[in-house]
Hints:
The protein is about 50% helix and about 0% strand. The protein contains 5 helices and no strands. The radius of gyration is 30 Å and the shape is elongated.
Amino acid sequence: LHPRSSFTxxxxxxxxxxxxxxxxxxxxxxxxxxxxxxxxPVVNDKVYLVVPTPGSEETIPQQISKIFHPFSVGVWGLxxxxxxxxxxxxxxFSDRTELASDSDEVQRPLRxxxxxxxxxxxxxxxxxxxx
Length: 131
């Protein structure tokens, strides 16, 4: 019989006679009570297990929208705006750095086309948006 958790495994070790006692933050469950005797708890933990009531089903869009609930729409807009602004500035300054490093040569600076800037901006947004 393989226990489902390491705490139940520790209680089973008591039942099997491998150890005399086990100390830890155990929850007293009916399965563990059948295996060993428990002392009076020294500390009561204020952790509660919350389970949704059966039958309350949420749709997938409702579950996905939960990730946006911690902040208001304005805060999310500000976060998105900062990511986009910092990405565009990093593309702007990286291009300026390349032009400055190439200024030693007599060649005229190469200008990137709009598609290259757009691709660099999107890459930078994704890089900054995905931590």
